[in-house]
Amino acid sequence: MSAVVAARGLDVTLEVAAGERVAVLGPNGAGKSTLLAVLAGVVRPDAGEAVLDDRVLYRQGGPDTRWVPPHARGIALLAQDPLLFPHLTALDNVAFGPRSAGARTRAAREEARRWLTEVEASELADRRPAQLSGGQQQRVAVARALAARPRLLLLDEPMAALDVAAAPMLRRVLARVLADRAAVIVTHDLLDAVLLSTRVVVVDHGRVVESGPTAEVVARPRTPFTARLAGLDLVRGVAVDGTHLRDGAGRLVEGTPSGDLVAGAPALAVFSPTAVAVHVAAPSGSPRNTFAATVVELEPRDAQVRVRAHDAHDGVLLADVTAGSVGELDLHPGREVHLAVKATAVTLYPA
Ligand SMILES: Nc1ncnc2c1ncn2[C@@H]1O[C@H](COP(=O)(O)OP(=O)(O)OP(=O)(O)O)[C@@H](O)[C@H]1O
């Protein structure tokens, strides 16, 4: 697709291969939502063209103008707000797509049940949206989007409105249901990009400024924006079982799996520096994952200080601490520390 939306300063070209999941990252106001709106058919670009499976979605700004309306595009948009029909049960919300496509009530409900099971929400079938938590509503919304059998799925910060406790489950469900599907995922969260996408596109001031395989962009960010975003802790290792990996130093790292971990296969533990506690003495008797490391740098960031520490096996590890604790713990380059992170804050995924 290509699109120019002059009023919003957008001028982008984007290709998504069959089965490819592309994460779109970028600062506020960069044009990410506008890009999705153009694909979904709710914003008409001044110029450009989009083709999905050889079918033209729009062609604007030239002599042969075309415009396929949103409902006829075969595209599902999953927004931050799940936007379920309030008067319908979860089951009937999901059955809506198959019903609209002509399925009889019973067949549509059977299909809806299958999708609810797929998003681990079968027990919620008879509840109305008001009786569901934000995370549960979002899972039902995922089932509803998939039940319409879209050829392309658009996700606009699907995790943004959820509290931290609800996000891991939705992330796990999305990682599973998005596998091998064409999807464009707008996110502010590099963790979501790492877990859900195969390729990252960075948009800034309405232009694509960086693009590449997710793992590469994370490891070697080329713009200040991605460098700042790429502040995630990554520990590489080999899966031991469904909830543990063994890293290069032989340490066991426990976490919550996203995707199926196969014992003996490469795996990655990912966590946010905000979830890491810094100790001077090794925390004893705690179920946390701990890493011995040496502080190499302290970088003030807003109200926090980012501690960059070096670990003999995993390279750089990051921890965000308060300015007060820098003093209390006497943190300075060269200081030996122990970084601790709870298993619940660690996501494990197949590498
Ligand atoms: N409905 C609208 N009408 C006019 N201009 C808009 C509208 N929505 C967004 N814009 C403008 O278009 C530009 C791109 O905004 P857009 O919402 O696409 O960015 P974004 O990358 O999704 O930002 P965010 O991360 O904050 O959601 C911005 O300059 C914004 O002010």
Automatic annotation (TrEMBL):
Pfam families: ABC_tran, TOBE. The keyword Nucleotide-binding applies. InterPro entries: AAA+_ATPase, ABC_SmlMolc_Importer, ABC_transporter-like_ATP-bd, ABC_transporter-like_CS, Mo/tungstate-bd_C_term_dom, Mop_domain, P-loop_NTPase, Transp-assoc_OB_typ1. Residues 284-350 form the Mop domain. Keywords: ATP-binding, Molybdenum, Nucleotide-binding, Transport. SUPFAM superfamilies: MOP-like, P-loop containing nucleoside triphosphate hydrolases. Residues 1-230 form the ABC transporter domain. GO terms for biological process: molybdate ion transport. PROSITE patterns: ABC_TRANSPORTER_1, ABC_TRANSPORTER_2, MOP. GO terms for molecular function: ATP binding; ATP hydrolysis activity. PANTHER family: SPERMIDINE/PUTRESCINE IMPORT ATP-BINDING PROTEIN POTA, SPERMIDINE_PUTRESCINE IMPORT ATP-BINDING PROTEIN POTA. This is Molybdate transport system ATP-binding protein.
